[in-house]
# Entry
Amino acid sequence: MGSLGVGLVIAIIVIAIIAFFVFLHYVPIPLWVRARAAGVKMGIFSLFRMRLIGIPPAIIVDALIMANKAGLNVTDAQLQAQYLAGGHIDTVVLALVAAQRAQIPMEWQRACAVDLAGRNPLEAVQASVNPKVIETPIFQGVAKDGIQLNVKARVTVRTNIDRYVGGASEPTIIARVGEGVVAAIGGSADYKEVLENPDHISKTVLNKGLDAGTAFEIVSIDIADVDVGRNVGADLQTAQAEADRRVAQAKAAERQYAAQAQEQEMKARTQAMRAKVVEAEALVPAAIAESFRNGNLGIMDYYRMRNVLADTGMREGIAQATGSPQSGGMAPPGPAAPPPSSGT
# Structure
């Protein structure tokens, strides 16, 4: 009985210790004491209810103490709602404290909206107090004289709290500044004007109101570097001349091929005509024989024709040997042959 009583006492003590720690977990008395000591009215049952609904009481108590000490009118219910919505209540409270110190109007609802939108409200306040500089990439523009300029700018912006939710971010600012820089360079008659007065680009870009609809307000645009690039006008003219040369070559080749095709066609026609001449010459003996049979050609007529042909061939040979110019390559006409007799 003695050993059983000792074991029972030990079990009761262990259960009591466990129950005590469980009680302290769900009823955080030290947090309640700290809140009371900081002057924050927080009921013990409110802390118990936070444990039941899954809210860490320490986060709410710390944020509430910070807000109370800064003089902000924030309740534990607002903090719990922001936490359950997935927000970062410590960042929201720090942003409100920083805005109050900098005398920037910022309400609890707007700070919570910025936080739930995925942006950092504390960074928004800090950028509004201390404007940040955005380094732009190198923008390339071409002046009217065809010279390319490479420009790098620094854009100083501060946060516009009223448009921070739903306003465009930094990439939009960079894109709009780049558009303005390229337009300003393109409007210059000479690239030397840009090199002499780079502030002309800044003034032109600022006057366009590029920060409309963005979450920032452009404070200044400073040209950090201007370099002379390629002669785009000369490159374009060279490319155009090369294109014209290729077109001219293509047209010349086309005419050449057409002439070659026509030459081949004329050669084919010449061969066809020669074939017809040979065919006609082959019919001459048969026609002469037919004339002999019909009595239309006598033997003397035949010999006279042969003499005329021989005389013509001799004259042509003499003309070619002496080199005397003859029209059409034909010999001058000789004496007229006597008319053929009608008889045999």
User: Anything to note?
Assistant: The chain has three domains: 6-129, 132-235, 298-344. The two ends are 181 Å apart (CA to CA). The mean pLDDT is 80. The CA atoms of residues 184 and 204 lie 7 Å apart.
